[in-house]
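Design job #97: recover the sequence.
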């Protein structure tokens, strides 16, 4: 018996005027493409048509496609089947017609989607947040009546199964004949708004996307995509008249750009170029970062260079990162979090996370099982993946559990995250700079303890940062007075602004200038974001001969100094960090050449960083072993000597007395306190153990 079908696809015939129009269009404009598609069918199953081409051919047909995509896409599919092909052995040629390059007014922001867009062809852009496995979806259902055996073939559309209403025998008991039914690959994707288009504390809007057949497995979480499709109503989950929505995808394109193409007017571009020529541009940029925070000029300068970033190099066998990672460790109340928040507000693309409330999978990627994946496992992108191409602000890094922090290692050095969860193996791109803040191990820095020992982070993680700054709360009357006056003036300015807004009383011009000087950044944040984005997209500087000589001289000098003093003063990681900082400095000036002044700026910041963290308190030497192993070269040598003493004595006696070790170690200038400290470290490393009080014994190794 005839069935009442809801889809427009089933009521069109091959004799429809719409089918004829599309047939003429294909014959005129896409004949070669169709013949090539027929040759490669069924490996390739889609014909891609440019909407602009269709608009030139028949404006009314193109306009109708936007308003009634179901009928028009079905007409295009039927027209494609009518094209007479060369003598090719093509069976059941039934390709998809996919449309791209929609007009600007059909490119809709996710947050602007409304009921007016339902069942219309639209274009959206977003970042892949979550993705399911590929599942089979029913395309043509064959139903058999369980009473009389009659068979009904019912095409399927939408997200609900369509069954025959009633059999000829007047019963409604049907079962699906799976072996005769047809299925198509199906995948569900969730996208969210790109972070760079959000303003203030806006939460990103999400949208579910349904892709099928040859569009499945084309993207991974964290990738930015452009999607064209028909916006549909999702079935209501309750009796309320409120529906969900999803996009039935017709065309999918992955975009390679790391930054959103920010619209920059010619006037703004001129302002950016004028700023780049300003001899005081670095000072202006420094003063535009956290202007309400007093001091920390070196830290702010380093963040400026991090925002502009180095140049990523893609070599035949590997990629060298251009991202700059910075670690701030400081006493409570030294404005670390406020500096991070300020940088987060300026960066064109960024995510802010807190160590206490963030898990390892929340940072990288996770496999989750929920109703989104139709009960199957899905991959969900974390903060570093979503912020790829931008900056991730990680506050209270020391409060994050150690096993969760380990997820950062690969992301920081290789710029990827490898996931092997729930049988899903994937690798995501995390081309993300990290600006992290932490507190000392015991909340405040101890004056007479080595700084590196007070950082509650593993050396393997610390060594991946290009720069690290120790922000100490120093008791100094002159500086305290300057900070107090600055904070008080900032609060006073805020109070005056509030009073002016509430009373409607205008401030005097002099007062306005004073308030502006205290509260507002030198460069307006909107223009600064465009400046950074413009530099990262347009400027890719190369090292000049002078810059190479300056960097090489400094690096080799550090290595030579270390050789003379019996320590490692630098490794190749410091040299690569210097190159990235130099490139970022050149980008600030929109220069395509890294000059000597850029190399000198990078060297100055690295020296400031090394001075705080990797200076051996015992010898005063720069010792990079501090951040590679957590121990100075001197400590490592003394530990080796102690271990040698214990092993030698263990050959003669079962348990070695600690007093005997101390007595022999005194020949090397080690007192009791140092020996006890080194013995504790050897015990933590598993090299020795204490069988009973006052005695030690080397760990037996095969």
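Job complete. Output follows.
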């Amino acid at each position: 018996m005839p069935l009442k079908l809801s889809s427009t696809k089933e009521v069109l015939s091959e004799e429809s005027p719409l089918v004829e129009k599309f047939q003429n269009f294909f014959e005129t404009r896409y004949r070669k493409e169709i013949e090539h598609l027929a040759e490669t069918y069924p490996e390739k199953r889609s014909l891609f048509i440019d909407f602009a081409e269709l608009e030139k051919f028949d404006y009314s047909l193109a306009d109708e496609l936007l308003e009634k995509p179901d009928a028009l896409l079905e007409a295009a599919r039927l027209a494609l089947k009518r094209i007479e092909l060369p003598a090719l052995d093509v069976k059941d040629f039934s390709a998809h017609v996919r449309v791209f390059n929609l007009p600007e007014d059909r490119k809709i922001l996710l947050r602007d989607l409304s009921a007016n867009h339902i069942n219309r062809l639209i274009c959206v852009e977003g970042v892949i947040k979550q993705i399911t496995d590929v599942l089979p979806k029913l395309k043509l259902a064959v139903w058999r009546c369980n009473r009389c055996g009659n068979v009904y073939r019912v095409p399927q559309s939408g997200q609900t199964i369509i069954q025959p209403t009633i059999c000829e025998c007047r019963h409604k008991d049907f079962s699906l004949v799976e072996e005769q039914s047809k299925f198509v690959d199906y995948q569900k994707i969730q996208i969210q708004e790109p972070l760079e288009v959000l303003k203030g504390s806006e939460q990103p809007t999400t949208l579910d996307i349904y892709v099928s057949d040859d569009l499945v497995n084309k993207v991974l979480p964290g990738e930015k995509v452009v999607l064209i499709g028909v916006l549909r109503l999702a079935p209501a989950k309750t009796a309320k008249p409120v529906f969900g929505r999803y996009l039935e995808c017709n065309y999918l394109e992955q975009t390679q750009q790391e930054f959103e193409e920010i619209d920059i007017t010619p006037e703004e571009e001129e302002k950016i170029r004028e700023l780049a020529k300003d001899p005081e541009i670095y000072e202006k940029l420094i003063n535009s970062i956290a202007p309400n925070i007093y001091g920390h000029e070196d830290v702010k300068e380093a963040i400026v260079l991090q925002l502009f970033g180095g140049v990523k190099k893609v070599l035949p066998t590997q990629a060298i990162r251009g991202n700059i990672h910075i670690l701030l460790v400081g006493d409570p109340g030294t404005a670390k979090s406020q500096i991070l928040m300020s940088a987060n507000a300026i960066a064109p693309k960024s995510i802010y996370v807190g160590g206490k409330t963030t898990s390892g999978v929340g940072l990288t990627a996770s496999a989750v099982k929920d109703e989104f994946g139709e009960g199957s496992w899905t991959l969900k992108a974390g903060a570093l993946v979503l912020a790829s191409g931008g900056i991730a602000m990680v506050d209270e890094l020391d409060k994050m559990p150690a096993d969760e922090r380990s997820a950062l290692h690969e992301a920081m050095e290789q710029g990827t995250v490898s996931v092997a969860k729930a049988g899903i193996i994937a690798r995501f791109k995390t081309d993300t700079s990290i600006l992290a803040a932490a507190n000392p191990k015991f909340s405040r820095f101890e004056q007479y303890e080595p700084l590196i020992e007070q950082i509650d982070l593993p050396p393997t993680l610390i060594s991946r940062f290009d720069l690290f700054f120790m922000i100490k709360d120093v008791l100094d009357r002159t500086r305290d007075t300057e900070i107090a006056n600055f904070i008080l003036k900032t609060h006073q300015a805020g109070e005056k602004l509030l009073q002016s807004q509430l009373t409607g009383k205008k401030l005097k011009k002099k007062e306005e200038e004073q308030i502006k000087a205290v509260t507002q950044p030198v460069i307006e944040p909107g223009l600064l974001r465009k400046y950074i984005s413009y530099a990262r997209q347009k400027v890719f500087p190369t090292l000049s001969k002078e810059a190479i000589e300056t960097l090489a001289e400094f690096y080799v000098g550090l290595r030579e100094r270390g050789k003379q003093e019996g320590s490692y003063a630098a490794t190749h990681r410091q040299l690569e960090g210097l190159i990235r900082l130099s490139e970022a400095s050149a980008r600030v000036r929109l220069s395509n050449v890294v000059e000597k002044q850029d190399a000198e700026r990078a060297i100055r910041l690295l020296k400031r960083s090394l001075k705080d963290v990797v200076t051996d308190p015992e010898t005063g030497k720069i010792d990079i072993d501090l951040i590679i192993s957590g121990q100075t070269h001197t400590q490592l040598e003394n530990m080796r000597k102690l271990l040698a003493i214990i092993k030698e004595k263990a050959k003669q006696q079962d348990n070695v007395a600690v007093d005997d070790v101390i007595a022999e170690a005194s020949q090397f200038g080690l007192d009791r306190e140092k020996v006890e400290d080194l013995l504790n470290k050897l015990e933590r490393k598993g090299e020795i153990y204490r069988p009973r009080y006052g005695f030690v014994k080397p760990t037996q190794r095969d």
